[in-house]
Amino acid sequence: MLQDKHGPIDYSEQGAGPTIVLVPGSWSSESAWRDIVAGLRNRFRTVTTSLPGYGGTRESRTSSDSSVDRQSETVEAVIRHTGGPVHLVGHSYGALVCLDLALCGLVPLMSLTLIEPVAFGLLRQAGEQTLYEQFVAMRDDYVRAYEHGDKDAARRMVDYLAGRGSFDALPSRGRQYIVDATPTHIRDMRSGFDPSIGSLANILLPSLVIRGEHSAEPLAKSADILSRAMANASLRTIAGASHFIPTTHAAELARLIGDHVLMTESLAWSSLSFASPFGPGFRNPAGSVS
């Protein structure tokens, strides 16, 4: 556990070797990476954490200050504690936070692995208005249902992201956790930002974007747009997977992460600076994510 100006931050590390920092998404904590860590720890130093409001990391956002900055500051504190530079990996909302860190360039990074980042604003910018509006309609329906007393409203979002019936297929403990954390998830959606497509070319880091074969079309298309916009990115699709890849396809995901990190290490690019001065100007606190 770390301590920064906002309070405690989850921090755990295992193994030795190149440092990989793993950032979970919404409705999740550092424990979400357990199976990934098991697949990596013999070759790498793995560091896990939780975003504000999840696990043991204190909620640092307020009603008047809910921008992505608070989440980014949490991960920056973790990276600084590792001694850096690090290979940064994020899933879903955590991947969006990782994207913000790469754009801001305030901490030393060697590579990025972004697993279905919820960068839905890219759809609108790329002219995919129908897909963008599809997501917005679902998001607004979910939030409206919760605010009108439907405590299981999260079922709509989970089934949208991972396929019909996914919420009911979860163990009862998992369903209850999601229900209890719904207010935090809604705050996450209001804490996002829309990176501009033009700004993404400033990220020079070797980057891997991963999506699931059966993920919702807006997620899959966003991943495609992102990978094409970044200067040094590749796109991989995991067969049979939907949005919750770290849980359902841990072994294959660990292999992709490990291979990407080793490839980057072999290039010996750690002496280069990948920092971008363009990040903060592209944040949009009103951006919609999940």
UniProtKB/TrEMBL annotation:
Which InterPro entries does its entry note? AB_hydrolase_1 (IPR000073), AB_hydrolase_fold (IPR029058), AB_hydrolase_sf (IPR050266)
Instruction: Enumerate composition-biased segments (Basic and acidic residues).
Output: 58-72
The GO terms this record gives for MF are: 2-succinyl-6-hydroxy-2,4-cyclohexadiene-1-carboxylate synthase activity; monoacylglycerol lipase activity
Domain AB hydrolase-1, which positions? Answer: 20-255
Q: Which GO terms describe its cellular component?
A: membrane
Give EC number(s), comma-separated: 4.2.99.20
Name the segments for region: Disordered: 51-72
A Pfam family name for this chain?
Abhydrolase_6
For this entry, list what GO says about its biological process: acylglycerol catabolic process
Record's keyword terms, sorted? Lyase
Protein name (database record): 2-succinyl-6-hydroxy-2, 4-cyclohexadiene-1-carboxylate synthase
- Provide the taxonomic classification: Bacteria, Pseudomonadati, Pseudomonadota, Alphaproteobacteria, Hyphomicrobiales
